[in-house]
Design brief:
The chain is 72% helix and 0% strand. The protein is an all-alpha fold. The protein is elongated and about 60 Å long.
Length: 78
């Protein structure tokens, strides 16, 4: 792996993804996706919906959780 360059002040430069991931809109999107995806998956299991539909909703919920966690971790690094 390539070492990150430091700026002249000695601080690390933020990654290019940091400006995309550190927006409040992305954080809210992750929260909404996680809540709606997991709630939809639970409802799908309780109403005997098809397995593919339930798995897609669970996947959306998991991706929403990951997006929210990445936002929080990147914000903490900043």
């Amino acid at each position: 792996m390539r070492a990150r360059r430091k700026s002249p002040t000695g601080r690390r430069k933020p990654s290019p993804w940091a400006s995309v991931l550190l927006t409040p809109h992305t954080f809210v999107l992750g929260l909404i996706a996680s809540v709606s995806g997991l709630a939809g998956a639970i409802r799908g299991v309780m109403t005997d919906a098809g397995a593919p539909q339930t798995m897609v909703l669970a996947g959306i919920g998991i991706l929403g959780i990951l997006l929210t966690v990445v936002c929080v971790v990147e914000y903490g690094k900043r």
